[in-house]
Each structure stands twice: as C-alpha cells, then as structure tokens.
Amino acid sequence: MNPLATTDQQQLDARAFSIYTAYDFSSAKATVKSAYEAAYGSALDAQESATLDAAVDELTFASIQKEVNSDPYRPKVYELLTPPKTWLGIQEPGGRYAYDNPDAIYRWIPISGSEQYVIHGHRYADGPSDVTFSLINNVNSQGTIAYLSASDLVIDNNGDYTVTIDSSAANGRPNHIQSTSAAVQLFVRNNLGDWSTETPDSLTVERVSTTKAPPALTDSAIAGAATQDLLTGGTNYGKGLLSASTLSAVINTIGTPKVGSGLVTQANSYSHFSIASDEALMVTLNPGGAGYFVLPVTNPWMVSVDPDTHQSSLNSSQAVANADGTYTFVISPEDPGVYNWVDTVGMTEGTIMLRLQKLASSKTANVSVQSNLVKLTQLASVLPAGTRYVTPAERQQIVAARSAGYARRRAVP
Q1: How many CB atoms lie within 10 A of CB 17?
Q2: Could you tell me the domains of the chain?
Q3: Torsional class of 130: left (φ above 0), alpha (ψ -120 to 50), beta (otherwise)
Q4: Tens-digit pLDDT profile for residues 371-391
Q5: Nearest 5°: phi and psi at 369?
Q6: What tens digit of pLDDT does each residue of 318-355 get?
C-alpha cells in the first residue's frame, strides 16, 4: 500500500477542506497579501500579481492543516506542504509555503512535552535519501528542540523501527527524542532523491501516557487558531523570510549555505534571480561531502513551480557531476540543452533556496557556490569541459520519467 494514503490522512484532509470552505478567511488573507506586497518592496508586474493570490490561498489552507492536527492528546501523522491535488476522493487546494521542497515528504505530529509517545516506522527496500525527525517549538519558525537524524536511526532487519518521545533522558533507549515543555510538533522529513524508486517510510503514532484528554477541538476553534497562524505566518514569511533573508541577498548570487536556527540538520542559502529570456544563471556547487542536496527554483512568493511536469529542481541523485566532483547547473527560462538545466517554467524573476543535508557534523567548511549570469550564446564557452548535453527528444523522455516518478507518491493500488 501507499504509506501516505492512510485513513487519518483522508479524514484530516476532508476536515481541513470543510473548514476552508465553511469559514471566512478573507480579512486575514488580505492582511497577509499586503504583508507580502510590502515585503517585496516594489510594484508587482503581471507575473508576480498572478501568483500572489494563489500563494496566499495555499498559505491559508496550510494554516488550517496545521491546526486540524494540533491536538497532542489525539496525535495523528499528517502530510502537509503538498501542491493542489485530487486524492483519496478529495479535491483540495495546495498547502505550500516558505520554500517547499519538491523532494520532501513532510509529515507533522502534535506533541506535548508532558506526554509520552511511540512512533512506529517501517523502511521499505528503497528508502528515502534522507530522513529527519525534528522536535520543534513553533510551527512557523520551527526552532529545533531535539532531533533524530538518519545516521542515528536504528532499524531492524525487517525494516521496522520505533521512536520514543518523552521528557526523560534516553537511558540506553535507541531512537529516543527527549522533549521539553516547549515542544509542539514533531516535524518529519523524508527526502526522496530518486523519485522513481525511493519510497517514504510508513509512520503511525500513539500516545502511551494515560493523562485524561481534554475535549477535542471544534471546527470553530480550529478556524480561529488557523486565522491567527495565518497572520503570524504572513509576517514571518513575508517580512522575515522573503524580505530579510531572500531579497536582501545580492540578486543572481547564491551564497554559501549556512546552518540556521530552525531545522539544524540542514544548511541552506536564500537568493533571488532576474533572468531575461536570452540569459542563464550558471551555478557551480561543491557539495562538500553532503549526502543530499537540492537546487530548486520557486516563484516570487517562495512556492515551487510545477515540479512534476518541469525540471524546476535537481537534487544529488538527479544531477550529473563534473569530472572534479562539483555540479554545474544552468537556470534559465529557455532550455539550453544542458542536462543539468533548472527550468524556471517561464519565470524571469523568482526565488531560490539551495539546501544541503547529511553533512558531517552539519559543517559547511568545504561547501562552495559560484554563480554567474551569462548570455545563452556565451554558455558553451564557460561551461566545464565534459558538460553533458541532451537533445529535445531526450529532454522529453527525462521529463516524462520525472512526471511518472512524482506520480508514485500519490499512487493508490
């Protein structure tokens, strides 16, 4: 079976969509839209205006999704940050925001620091390229309290494992995460490198402490909490992530990734681009031994763009290395015929978040990034020797395989 197609997923999606359609979020959405416009800092062109409303809609639905599974006394495993889809009998809007990663399966589990939990997992033959369990103190800023990384996860010969979460020290228990009173969510990332073969882990959760549970949240309470979450997110992602972190960077320049204060198992670099139809941004990455990396383009509002039908991202499993172990990418609206092309899907302006994971001790000392804006006519003269090229027919085959691989995560027997 598909490890994502669970009964809990179906029921939570149905309730989230019901709340999305039954309650009025227009005032909060207008406030968030104004915050994003102010963060952008200049008049919007047609392309930017056309995508802003959709980005706010997705952030709104994501806020509802976070709150519909926020009860730590009745925890469920819930996948979020997905594009618009019709799945498990439900047609729903997307819930992407703040640099969603097309490779990542994001699942959230509500946690209380005073409760005890057991998570049961199963790893399939071709598991994810990277897995991280991050206990966080805020659903927006995602400050990490404690985490369990892929290298520390103990899995038995059948592919099964158990993760325990409570306020006690491990005391010899494998796969244990010690929580605190600040804990609110367990944020689980399964990064799929090879979309055609890798499968996310199967996950279930149970609260094993016997504390009497308070009454369950009503739809009205969830809608109210989602409204506040939306307003907070609009400020965090608009003023903070877009304005202060992304647009403050030098345009068409990707800096060396750094480990932030949020998800500490990941190093990243924020940037933005402005590329004419006859230009390309050439990026050369030395991953410094990272076991996983991904270079995606996102729209001006930090939302992925058609990753299932366009090569708008490339990761460490999909890209082809240079002879010296570095990787050179060509970001452009027009296909340059280079294998490592990152398609902007017609966008001439947008945002980028380069991610690296599985770094030794999360160090980036050996990581380097070089970026140059060049004319497409100059590209062949500046690309490394041995650069791999593709024909239009080969590109069509690559994108078709990509689409089929992406569809695997929604396939239901």
Answers
A1: 18
A2: 7-233 (no CATH), 249-410 (2.60.120.1600)
A3: beta
A4: 999 999 999 999 999 999 999
A5: -140, 130
A6: 999 999 999 999 999 999 999 999 999 999 999 999 99
